[in-house]
Amino acid sequence: MHDWQRIFDQNLLAPPHTQRARQPLKESTAFQCVLKWLDGPLIKQGVLEVLSEVGCHLRVSLFDVTYRHFFGRTWKSSARPVEPLCRQPPRIVFSEPFYFHTSLNHPNVVAVVEVVTEGRRRDGTLQALSCGFGILRIFSNSPESPSSAPQDKRLRLYHGSPRALLHPLLQDPIEQNKHMTLIENCSLQYTLKPHPLLEPVFHLLPENLLVSGLQQIPGLLPAHGESGDALRKPRLQKSLTWYLDDLFFTLYPSLEKFEEELLELVISDHFREAGSPLDSGALEILERRLCVGVHNGLGFVQRPQVVVLVPELEVALTHSASFSRKVGASSKARSGNHTLVLRSRLQLPEMVCHPAFTIVFQLEYVFNSPSGADGNAASVTSLSNLACMHMVRWAVWNPVLEASSGRVMLPLQGGIQPNPSHCLVYKVPPASMSSEEVKQVESGTVQFQYSLSPEGHPDTPMEHAIRPKAEQRPSRKPPTSPSSLPAPPPRGLTTPQDSPVGPGLSLSQLAASPQSPAQRRLAEASSKPPGSPTPSLAPGEFPLEGRISHLEADLSQTALAPGTSTAEQLQELPFTPVHAPLIVGAWTRSSGGKPSRASLALLRSAGFPEILDANQQPAEAVNPTDPVKFSPQKEESDCLQSNEIVLQFLAFSRVSQDDQPAPWPQTVYFTFQFYRFPPETTPRLQLVELDEAGKTSSASLPHLLVLIHKDGSFDAGSPGFQLKYLVDPGFLRPGEQRWFARYLAMQTLQIDIWDGDSLLLIGSAAVQMKHLLRQGRPAVQVSHELEVVATEHEQDTMVVSGDVTRFGCVKPINVHTVVKGRLHLTLANVGHLCERRVRSPSSLPPSRSRVISNDGATGFSGGGLLTPGAPRLKNVVQAQKLADVDSELAALLFSPPWPGTPRPQGAGREGDAVRRRKLERMRAVHLRERGAEPGRCGLGALAQQSIRAQHARDLQLIAAYRERTKAESIANALSLAITTRHTIRATLGAAEFFEFALRNPDNTQHTVTIAIDSTELSLILDGREWRYFKELTGLHTPLEEDMFHPRGSLTPQLFLRPREMVHIPFKFQTFSAGPRASAQASAELRFEKDTDAGSPRKSSTMPTKHAKVLFRAGSGKPLAVLCLTVELQPHVVDQVLRFYHPELTFLKKAIRLLPWHTLPGAPVGMPREDPPVYVRCSDPNVICETQNMGPGEPRDVFLKVASGPSPEIKDFFVTIYADRWLATPVQTWQVHLHSLQRVDVSCVTGQRTRLALVLRGMQTVRKVKAFSSHPQELTTDPRGVFVLPPHGVQDLHVGVRPRRAGSRFVHLNLVDVDAHQLVASWLVCLSCRPPLISKAFEITLPAGGGKGANKRITYTNPYPSPRAYRLHSDHPRLLQFKEDAFQVGGGETYTIGLRFASRREAGEEEILIYINDHEDKNEETFCVKVIYQ
User: Fold this and answer.
1) Most Cβ neighbours (<10 Å): which of 86, 810, 874, 1406?
2) Cross-strand pairs, 1209
3) Helix, strand, or coil here: 136?
4) CA-to-CA distance for 679 and 752, rounded, in angstroms?
């Protein structure tokens, strides 16, 4: 009891301002603040001379700037000794954290930090001095992002005491007030961050209470293995359930006398305050209520339970004889009618074995005052006089930790002393106001029996649902409406007739009066979830109108319309998605290594072409396991600026597997993309086994890769396939050499390996290209042996096991990764001298220039320049034909006139022209008859007249055209004087930040409107985002808050003073993938084409984008124009994901990120807590999001993609960011989604299931063949090549006999064997169930590859007729049959011979033997358990 009283007295809280209580409650947010150190000469030398034993500590209080109100409780740090001012600058280290949580999410709710110095005077008394204070802003004006990595901040300190904040002259913003004076060179270093780990313990920690991490909180323990700070990772103490029975209150001298005295005092109080007398008969007691709750000294752990008490005499008179006997037996010691009894059991499940945990009893009386003269109910307008409630007594019981049961009697308390509900309590009447009987008695007692066992009192009826169901588990959701009705009791817990409804609505609540704001705060707090704190109110907050100090629900609206029902919001339960996450990087990131010496010797003897440098010397061999030291300066200063990248595909080795291996492919081909060259699809390569190919040390079977000619033949004498890429300054843009070097240093080249016959994906391999950096060497080469990894995704099922409300209870599907083989690959980089001289990097335009100025915009030049490249001394123009200058005018001049258009003047009409032409012909005839040759003069006159008419027409057309385009041409010419052109280089997902220096050229102020014609170019309107990009790029230009005036959907505006120049921040960010993804997506579905392996590949030009920004004044006059050219650069792809999914459905996948510190793009030196993750997708039709599951939990990226019709392939990119402004992606994924026709098959393991697929012919005859990804389990008929007639319909018979149970996918391709094209593709979804096992056996075999064993089992034909049977096994490598088929007569027995093979590893294996009939249906299944020792 003493521990509880001490904690309760030390943690009394001042409530928030009453006006703040009117605002709707929000979700409470937890914070951790660490006060690190205090810098500066804050403590004067004079203080150190006057006082001795000088120490310094910090005090923190919550303050509401709007209402100038301190609330909560002041937190005080531990004192630190103050040393003499010898250190410059002086520093006092605290490094002390404190914690709190609050729902007052408002920018004007701040924390005030005060620096206090205390010491002893010469007379020995303590003296405390305030040395300054600071204002710590908890919330900003805009909503903050999720919790991010904490950053150290400096708090500026001001002269004076925090009491100055109560002065009315200090208005917000306080920091800019003229009465606030900064202390120079003094600051407090601190860290403030959200602390979500505190949310599960909100019920033990009241709101707005500042507590130290070293303070002991009752009910909390530090994390396992830690000591000291219990709030950093708090852990709840185990709770117990206490049961209270036979509870009754004793009020002296009797219940009747006590209640008469109480009514007289209430009437007297009403007369004194209201001024009008109240009839003593008009006021009556409506209800006697008991509130019971568990209190830990800081607040109620859960909302107190509310039950109804009844007088003992009333119970004895109105109930059965058996109950009356029980009550009478328990009340023999009670004298008279002076007790209130509880007729049910109380259950308190939140008790904890701690000295500060107590049970609080509060006795309340509810009064009702009928206002009608005849005693009828009041009208609706007089509801405010109907109900009032007073707390009359309370008691606190601290259970004995060692006792398990017993009886307790406690004295009741009252009066003005502080109580757990922080409200007014009826006090013991003074002697002058009490009767003679009351003067001689106590204030009352409460008695009850307690037990830790639910069977402690079997004769006592169990208490029904004491609190709503929503309170039985903590909730982080905001509290529901207080007017919502409590939940009914759960089924199975009946309410006895002799027990009043506990948490239900009492009669006083049905007639509750409208509440004041303070009362409404109490009503809302009573409807909070159990994790919410109990409100703290001062006595002065209760007005006279209703006298209600505590209500369970706000029923002012419900009382008016009791028949209306309120629709409650369903609360979402924590649910783990059934699409279990895939681990990113675990299935396509193959592990490559250095080839073994045996493999190198074997491959070298095969005759692969040797890689030579420019001097015809062998290239330097590099060990792939050696680290790479990358120096960009060394790459740029290399004289060999041309890089010839060589890829040599040497061999493909098969990995030995325990299970029966799949058929080895005969041909393969590869798909990949290097830099910004076109996506590469190699020709089909034949796999040729070496003659002397014994098994190497890695137990792999090497097969050389040999190019197949057009006629299908191949030459084994020239093995390998070689590709060359020439990267020289001829196609590199200015400044792109650095990008290419960075690409080689960071990129991982991902190669997909395909079966050349079936067009099925064999697997993927990844190789790092950092060893291709020559670093000044003439040529380098590196040989890799890469694992080719295949991934098998099982079908997503909706089977959920376990409790879905707990994390990790849904069993995830498995993603099977199988190493299919090893690819032997050689990469080389050969340097060459470039033909033309490359400019030095310093002369190139800066690709990272961040500030663009419009001062360099040139004026109008006056026309075309005579020599565009020469320096211009004066404006010299050259006359040019208009048709050569304007292409549109040239098209009009050389086009024939449209029919019906008016002809130019002077050209004459059509009739006149015909007549003149006839006259000219007649004249020529007359001249010929005279013997004179028609001269040049006659014919020239007709031609000249036609030419003159054409010239007149052209001149008139030119004049009209010039008149029409004059205004536009002049405007375009004048705009050149204010136009600034700039080029930036951007990559997918990366934000390119720059600033435009805009200058007002006029002597008048302007309101500038900024118009942008590109959605990928945007203004940075948030000051925090602008500051982030400035710090990221190291830009030190001025920064202004609230620079722009946003206008909703309209363009923002900017105010410019005369001749002022401002820096306007822009951000260009594109998420469109361009043609790269679509080109690579269809790489595997290609025609056979002629490929020259020796010639270098040509590069593909990356797309170029353009954006225009127009700065226009309010009058419409343009001030400046920014023309932006964006050159897209190739981006780094960290992961390639390929999914096969049924057509016209949704693919839903959760991709789990690796731990943050293992990602290659994660910053170095980050704190232990992972930063928030943000994702964006290049396809707007793809839903891509991530969720923060809490500290220490894994991060998942959720994808929802709609698949198209078969065989469509959808490609998109997913970028992952670690900053909320999406500046630079730390990971980029490329996702391929193949849409296939879906075929669902339900089958039994070991039994063949048959189905038919319909094939439709194409335009021409095709020779096709069906291929399966699992040929041992899925077979087709016809098996080989068959003809598919044009426009015909044919069935493809499919037989499925799975070897293992479960759900998975099997791919089926129909391929044109001549053109090697994919004709059709299916996704067979198998749902396999295990067979019934009829017999079981067990044998023991030696492990380690020794000899096997021969065994025999018998099988009896149960049929009367002869039958033929077939034998199969799910492990054909471990078990072989003497005969795969046999025939046995009716009722006869056949002996089956078994040959068990040994294996290298020890362990156990269950082998199933399927006995099928002639239709391959399962007759019986035997199970043999083999133990390998």
Assistant:
1) 810
2) 1234
3) strand
4) 12
> Region 930-957: what's the mean pLDDT?
65
Is the Cα torsion angle 520, 521, 522, 528 positive or negative in sign?
positive
Convert the pLDDT of each residue in 612-623 to its tens digit: 888 888 888 888
Which of 205-219, 734-748, 817-831, 1102-1116 has the weakest average pLDDT?
A: 734-748
3-state secondary structure of 744: helix
Residues 6+ apart with CB under 8 A from 879: none
pLDDT band, residue 1228 (cuts 50/70/90): confident
Query: Per residue, what are the HEC states of 982-1029?
Result: EEEEECCCCCEEEEEEEECCCCCCEEEEEEECCCCEEECCCHHHHHHH
Structure tokens at 429: 């009447």
Q: List all residues 6 or more positions away from 711 whose beta carbon is below 8 Å from its beta carbon.
A: none
pLDDT band at 686 (very low <50, low <70, confident <90, very high): confident
Rounded-to-integer distance, Cα 177 and Cα 185, Å: 19
706's tokens: 């040999």
pLDDT, greater one: 99 or 867: 99
Q: How far apart are CA 281 and CA 258, in angstroms?
A: 16
Coil, strand, or helix at residue 910? helix
Share of the chain above pLDDT 70, in %: 70
For tokens 């361009």, name the residue.
1074
Higher local confidence (pLDDT), 288 or 516 = 288
Residue that is written with structure tokens 């009020």 in the block = 251
Q: Cβ atoms within 10 A of the Cβ of 121, count?
A: 11
Alpha helices in 336-475 (DSSP H): 436-439
Contact by Cβ (8 Å): 394, 304: no
Question: Rounded to an integer, what distance in angstroms lies between the CA atom of residue 1420 and that of residue 1409?
Answer: 8
Within its chain, how far is the Cα of 105 from the centroid?
A: 24
What's the CA gap between 1190 and 1184, in Å, rounded?
19
453 contacts: CB under 8 Å, gap ≥ 6: 243, 404, 405
- The contacts of residue 1095 (CB under 8 Å, 6+ apart) are 724
Q: Count of H helices and E strands in the chain?
A: 18, 67
Mean pLDDT over 263-288 rounds to: 77
Spatial separation of the C-alpha atoms in residues 724 and 1302, rounded to whole Å:
46
What is the band of 700 on the pLDDT scale with cuts at 50, 70, 90?
Answer: low
- Give the integer Cα–Cα distance in Å for 1312 and 1281: 9
Q: Give the Cα separation of 71 and 64 in Å (integer).
A: 8
How distant is the alpha carbon of residue 40 from its chain centre? 42
**pLDDT at residue 862, as a whole number:** 53
Q: Could you tell me which of 656, 682, 657, 658 has the C-alpha nearest to residue 669?
A: 682
| Residues 1152, 1159: Cα–Cα separation, whole Å | 12
Q: What is the mean pLDDT of residues 1199-1206?
A: 89
The distance in angstroms from the start CA to the end CA of the chain is 67
Q: Is the distance from CB of 1206 to CB of 1309 less than 8 angstroms?
A: no
pLDDT at site 71:
93
1049-1072: per-residue pLDDT in tens?
777 888 888 888 889 999 999 888
Rounded mean pLDDT of the chain?
Answer: 74
Q: Mind spelling out the 3-state secondary structure of 311-373?
A: EHHHHHHHCCHHHHHHHHHHCCCCCCCCEEECCCCEEEEEEECCCCCEEEEEEEEEEECCCCC
Token pair for 702: 């090497």
Q: Maximum distance among all alpha carbons in the chain?
A: 166
Q: Residue 1007 in contact with residue 1113, Cβ under 8 Å?
A: yes
Identify whether the C-beta of residue 588 lies closer than 8 Å to the C-beta of residue 791: yes
352-386 pLDDT, tens digit each: 888 889 999 999 998 876 444 344 443 333 334 45
DSSP 8-class letter at 540: G
Continuous segment of H or E residues that includes residue 1110: strand 1104-1112
Q: Which residue in 613, 646, 1017 sits closest to 833, CA to CA?
A: 613
